[in-house]
Amino acid sequence: MEANLVQPYHSFSTVSMRNRNKINTYKYKNIPYPLCSILTKPPANNQNHNAETTTGSSSNNVYKDNWFDRLAINHLSQSIQATTGLRNNKSGYEGLAEAAKMVYTNFNSTRQVNLVVEALQKAFPKPILSLMKMVLPQSKWAREYCAAFTRVFFSWLVGPCEVKESEFNGRKENNVVHIKKCRFLEETNCVGMCTNLCKMPSQLFIKDTLGMPVNMVPNFDDMSCEMIFGQDAPPPDTDPAFVQPCYKANLAINTNRIATVK
Q1: What is the chain's pLDDT, residue by residue, as a tens digit (262 residues)?
Q2: CA Rg value for the chain
Q3: Domain ranges (residues) in the chain
Q4: Single pTM value for the model
Q5: Name one GO molecular function term (predicted).
Q6: What number of other Cβ atoms are within 10 A of residue 92's Cβ?
């Protein structure tokens, strides 16, 4: 097992001045995050790729993406690459993960969040989002609809998931999406990428575009996650996800094997 110490506040060494000037700054500023996280590398024999299967480099699960899954994965990957100006030649989920890793290693934490939010806004047409916001006012039906919609249409991004019941304002609702083992976390194997490139941008994007609060609660021990629709996420300085020191599941290393990224 090997590990790299990844520092989010990284240089812009691979971004041209022209590309940097094209990147807009969103209103989400000064978001506090841990200064570093551990990116682990699993044994090479965990890799398993073929023409019909997409498997994360750190994944034990095998994903058989259909035509819609592949279309959605490549569309989001291209949106991220177009937003940052950083391109890669990989395809499928591997290309999406590579695009995310390039964001993580070339921009500071606040910029990472803002860039992913911008990429999501490019990926989803504004008229559709505006219409959904109009027809989805805060209600039990809207929260349950968001949960069901996520389960059906976004398993390509997060992996197999199911809708669960929870108590909301004293009554039961099916407003929670339980992700059994997050595909993005499996692929990237990094706490910082989970919080900076998935959790925070998704929470901000869904609330701003649909008016629907959502709290994403990752479990770094088993790679599961819960999306609780209707619940406001706590601020980063009190959110347990942002005080996670490292990815615990694979941290069987000693300090002599940690290499600092320059």
Answers
A1: 344 444 433 332 333 333 333 334 445 554 544 433 444 444 344 333 333 333 334 446 889 999 999 999 999 999 999 999 999 999 999 999 999 999 999 999 999 999 999 999 999 877 777 777 777 778 899 999 999 999 999 999 999 999 999 999 899 999 999 999 999 999 999 999 999 999 999 999 999 888 899 999 999 999 999 999 999 999 988 999 887 665 544 444 333 333 333 3
A2: 18
A3: 67-242
A4: 0.74
A5: iron ion binding
A6: 18
